[in-house]
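Service request form, structural biology core

Requester: graduate student, group of Dr. S.
Request type: structure prediction, single chain
Budget code: on file
Notes: please return the result as structure tokens.

Sequence provided:
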Amino acid sequence: MSKHRTGKLMKRVTLTVDPDDYSEIDALARRSNVSASWLIRRSMREFLERHAGNDCLEIPLAKEER
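Core staff response, request fulfilled:
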């Protein structure tokens, strides 16, 4: 496993995403000269910083269509 620039071991995760969402992430990453993985990690960090200190999220989650 690779190390983060802070020297911490990175944790590998696997997730399933909508193909259209991934295409948009991948295209944005390519235009920005970064990897899709880097962009997703950066997005996660920004999300966590925005919600730091919250006991829970107040984001309405849509139920999956069946």
